[in-house]
Amino acid sequence: MSTGLIFDIKKYAINDGPGIRMTVFFKGCSLSCKWCHNPESMSPKVQKMFNVKKCIGAVKCIDNCPNNALELTPEGIKTNYDLCNLCGKCAEVCPTKAFEMLGSTISISELMKKIDNEAIFFDQSGGGVTFSGGEPLMHSAYLLEALKECGKRFYHRVVDTTAFAKQEILLEVAKHTELFLIDLKVMDSKKHKEFTGVTNEKILSNIIELAKTNCEIIFRMPLIKNVNTSEKNIIETAMFINSLEGFRNIINLLPYHNIAENKHIKLGEPTSFIEFETPSEDEIQKVISIFKDYGIKATIGG
Fold first, then answer.
1. Which fold has domain 47-102?
2. CATH number of 3-45+103-300
3. What is the spatial distance between Cα 115 and Cα 138, in angstroms, rounded to a whole number?
4. Per-residue pLDDT at 1 exceeds 80
């Protein structure tokens, strides 16, 4: 039976597909978007977060560390990562949950128990399960097993993906998925690589093939000033959507916010945070207007 590295499971999610959902977040991503609001999702390995604001200096974590990797300083508990093996013993005894381990291995049977416990909310709201990340397609064997188990129970299934994967994997996943949520970040491939670490030819090719299936696709666009808000990029995005097979006329706009800054600090990587600009209300409305001219309904959020 497959296992997957999961860093969070969110109950009562309402922005990851229709109805009330459970969203399963996989650890590890094939992209490295500079604006990512979930930097803890990027690494495919277990990580540790430390929230200095929660720390009360109880030092139970220091006493429980088998490798003497922790030290109490005026700035709070410091971790020596040359000694730390990420065993999580510190997080187990921290009374204020200042330490948080990111990433745990959960079997399919364990996952399905958690999902089954929420089934009543799916039934009442028309919801279901969303697999997100990170990038769920990086865990394709586990993902497919989970999707099939959800299918046996008639749970509505959503995969939130970058579409950066082997095409055969994406199309196999499509056989067991009702809805895909896919970001269209920026159409220029060089610019795409500059801000995400990869070019977008594979992504666009995969979307073209996915659109030939019966799966529903809702596109999303993280809206970032001076990255992808130009009229040229919005028109190219609209034209790409219109070129796809099927009725694809919805895109959700996600204006940039700097929520990731605090997460980078908790991960001990404050210099990794890069701040971008949020587009103004007028700029957002212009984007919505351009999409409307091309027959595409653009809405904020979703």
1. Alpha-Beta Plaits (3.30.70)
2. 3.20.20.70
3. 21
4. no
